Amino acid sequence: MQEELDHLLQQYEKLVGEKLHLFTEMLSNMREISRNNESVICADEEIARIKTNMDFVKRDIFQKRRLLDDNTSIMDELRRELRELDDELLMKDQRIAEMEDAVKCKDCELQDLEDLIMHKDRVIGQMQQELLQAEDSRKKENEEKRKKEIEDLITRANQPRKPYIAIKGDPVDEMMAKHINECNYYVPVERMAEGHYMMGTKKVYAKIMNGKLIIRVGGGYMLIDEFLRHFESEFCSGAPLSASVQLQGGGEIQIEGRQGTPPRKSIGGGGSPARSGKSPNRNK
Description:
63% of the residues lie in helices and 14% in strands. By secondary structure, it is α+β, with helices and mostly antiparallel strands. It has a domain at 159-267: Metal Transport, Frataxin, Chain A, CATH 3.30.920. The strands form two sheets. It has a five-stranded antiparallel sheet. It has a three-stranded antiparallel sheet with strand order 6-7-8, covered by helices on one side. The model is unreliable at 237-249 and 253-284 (pLDDT under 50).
């Protein structure tokens, strides 16, 4: 019996030792498991962090890929523009070459024009000399003409003024002759018909009213003296006391004197004549 108890006790002690050993191993395993759990937790956190970083990297890669696509499109567009610019530059170079050739041609034409201008200048110089000679000849001819005009004017001024002769029996014409012959300046008068006259370039009608000679003007009448004074600038073609004539080629001659007396002459001024006009003409 004692032996069985000892044997049981030994078995119990053996079992307790085994349990203790198992407990120790279990504790060691639990510690290992705990360490492994901590490692797993750290690994999970690291995995989560890595996943987050990977998401960021994926988004960054996606954005960069889109940016790369955009840049690729831009590069393609720039390459196309560069090709167009190269083509345009080539055309410009060709145009420049053509323009340089044209400039060379224009330089040749310019040289020809300069030679032509020099020739024209020589011709113009010769023509100017000829023109000066012709001008001198014309001045001499004008001086000769002026001298001749002066001589003719002096000759006409020395001629007596022919009086207007009235038709006998025509009282209007007789009174017209009296006023015309007493006028201080010469009036060209021609009798067209009874009462109708051509005075200078004016056709007039004259009649006697209340013993006075009147001239029809417009819708009314005017005394002959008033009529002559009013139209003096049109009728006056000469004066017995003074005359002024514009000569051909410039200059002016003034003839002063009375009928039957030698005239005095002055050219280009020299006094204020009483009236101006052409030399007296004869009545028809």
